């Protein structure tokens, strides 16, 4: 796994860059000033440094010179703001490998990093359209022992015994069906590889991609999922989606806003609501719009003209995904891949912690939703949507 050192005195900037790159499978180190950056470079030997040009005390040029003394071959990408393009060109002459000008897009950042370090290896498995249901192992068959000759006269089973046998057979068949549903697993080819939010609206699956900045609408069919519509949202970094009637709420953690958009052609913007934090997840439960920020502050808001807060909670796992069904609040953390189940009580008491049975190394869980008892998953970096039974969740506590 490639190791990247981010050097910037702005915590929000480090957070934004870290989130983008960590979801791509890179190991991240951070420093807020020059001395800390040089100490990390000596001890941890990063594969790439993203270095802000303007730092307190020791500036970016001095840090660049220090980095080159530690490792002449270490690639360094200078990050510059304020339109100082000439300064960026000058520091490239001093040994910088590339520069990025603020504000830059996610895609620019990812593509620049790819020039110098490798990402996680691609999955060994290739996906077809549609992907077939995963094969199940054949049941073990036991040979029946040779029958013992029965006496010529045999008593007929009683009616009660026959009924008991039927009930037993029915119970075993129900258990078989239930087990099959729990272990169900199927994957479908999607249209985008960086899904950050999913929500079911009736029989349509709505998915938002943070890198392409687009919303995709799928409909289930006999051959899997069919892409019906694509809505580009060029100025929105999609971190959460929620559908409430004819309104689609879209969270943008970078801009600290929640957008209300009409569910019609083009998803026209109705209103933008400033948020106190970086909203990482949304969910509408039929009465309240749930918002959750990067610090774990979950707020129930009325879907009115101001998204008025009604109730607030603190979730210690600081989730970036959430979903509420009839019994529980489900949350997830992309960086760990863990899923949490909370009781719907006054404190949202933690009721269980789960991991995913099917692992995809280097492709973290980026979104999930429940539909008719089935778990729907997306993984960042894969153009695959997964439908799974409850057996996909493996309890950890």
What can you see in these coordinates?
The structure is a single chain. The chain has 397 residues and is an alpha+beta fold. It has 2 domains: 3-114, 3-Layer(aba) Sandwich (Rossmann fold); 182-395, Methylamine Dehydrogenase, Chain H (7 Propeller). Helices cover 19% and strands 37% of the residues. It is built from 6 helices and 26 strands. It has helices spanning 11-22, 34-44, 60-70, 85-93, 106-114, 159-182, and strands at residues 3-7, 27-31, 48-52, 76-80, 98-101, 185-189, 195-201, 204-209, 214-221, 224-232, 240-244, 247-252, 257-262, 269-274, 279-284, 289-293, 297-301, 309-314, 321-324, 328-333, 338-343, 350-356, 365-371, 374-379, 384-388, 393-395. The chain has a 5-stranded parallel sheet with strand order 2-1-3-4-5, with helices on both faces. A hairpin with a 2-residue loop joins strand 7 and strand 8 (204-209). Helix 2 runs parallel beside helix 3. The two termini are 29 Å apart.
Tags for this model:
397 residues; alpha+beta; Rossmann fold; Methylamine Dehydrogenase, Chain H; 2 domains; five-stranded parallel sheet; five-stranded antiparallel sheet; 6 helices; 19% helix; 37% strand; globular
Task: Lay out the secondary structure.
Elements: E1 3-7, H1 11-22, E2 27-31, H2 34-44, E3 48-52, H3 60-70, E4 76-80, H4 85-93, E5 98-101, H5 106-114, H6 159-182, E6 185-189, E7 195-201, E8 204-209, E9 214-221, E10 224-232, E11 240-244, E12 247-252, E13 257-262, E14 269-274, E15 279-284, E16 289-293, E17 297-301, E18 309-314, E19 321-324, E20 328-333, E21 338-343, E22 350-356, E23 365-371, E24 374-379, E25 384-388, E26 393-395
Parallel strand pairs: 1-2, 1-3, 3-4, 4-5
Antiparallel strand pairs: 6-25, 7-8, 8-9, 9-10, 11-12, 12-13, 13-14, 15-16, 16-17, 17-18, 19-20, 20-21, 21-22, 22-26, 23-24, 24-25
Helix pairs in contact: 2-3
């Amino acid at each position: 796994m490639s190791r990247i050192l981010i050097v910037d005195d702005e915590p929000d900037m480090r957070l934004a860059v870290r989130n983008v790159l960590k979801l791509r499978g890179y190991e991240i180190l951070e420093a807020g000033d020059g001395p800390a950056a040089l100490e990390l470079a000596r001890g941890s030997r990063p594969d790439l440094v993203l270095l802000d040009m303007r730092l307190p005390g020791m500036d970016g040029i001095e840090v660049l010179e220090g980095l080159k003394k530690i490792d002449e071959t270490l690639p360094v990408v200078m990050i510059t703001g304020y339109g100082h393009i000439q300064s960026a060109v000058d520091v490239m002459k001093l040994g910088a490998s590339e520069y990025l000008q603020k504000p830059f897009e996610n895609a620019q950042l990812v593509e620049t990093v790819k020039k110098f370090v490798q990402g996680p290896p691609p999955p060994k498995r290739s996906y077809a359209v549609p992907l077939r249901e995963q094969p199940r192992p054949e049941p073990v068959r036991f040979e029946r022992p040779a029958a013992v000759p029965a006496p010529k006269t045999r008593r007929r089973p009683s009616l009660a015994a026959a009924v008991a046998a039927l009930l037993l057979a029915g119970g075993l068949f129900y258990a078989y069906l239930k087990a099959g549903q729990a272990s169900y697993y199927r994957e479908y080819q999607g249209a985008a590889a960086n899904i950050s939010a999913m929500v079911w609206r009736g029989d349509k699956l709505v998915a938002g991609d943070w890198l392409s900045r687009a919303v995709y609408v799928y409909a289930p069919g006999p051959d899997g999922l069919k892409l019906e519509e694509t809505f580009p949202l060029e100025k929105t970094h999609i971190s959460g989606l929620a559908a409430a009637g004819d309104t689609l709420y879209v969270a943008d953690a970078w801009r600290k806003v929640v957008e209300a958009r009409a569910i019609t052609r083009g998803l026209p913007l109705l209103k933008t609501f400033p948020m106190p934090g970086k909203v990482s997840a949304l969910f509408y439960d039929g009465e309240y719009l749930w918002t959750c920020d990067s610090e774990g502050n979950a707020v129930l808001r009325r879907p009115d003209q101001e998204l008025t807060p009604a109730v607030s909670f603190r979730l210690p796992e600081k989730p970036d995904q959430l979903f509420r069904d009839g019994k529980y609040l489900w949350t997830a953390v992309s960086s760990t891949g863990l899923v949490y189940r909370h009781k719907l009580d006054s404190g949202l008491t933690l009721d269980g912690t789960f991991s995913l049975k099917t692992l995809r190394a280097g492709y973290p869980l980026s979104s999930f939703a429940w539909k008719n008892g089935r778990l729907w998953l997306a993984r960042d970096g894969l153009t695959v949507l997964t439908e799974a039974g409850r057996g996909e969740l493996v309890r950890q506590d």
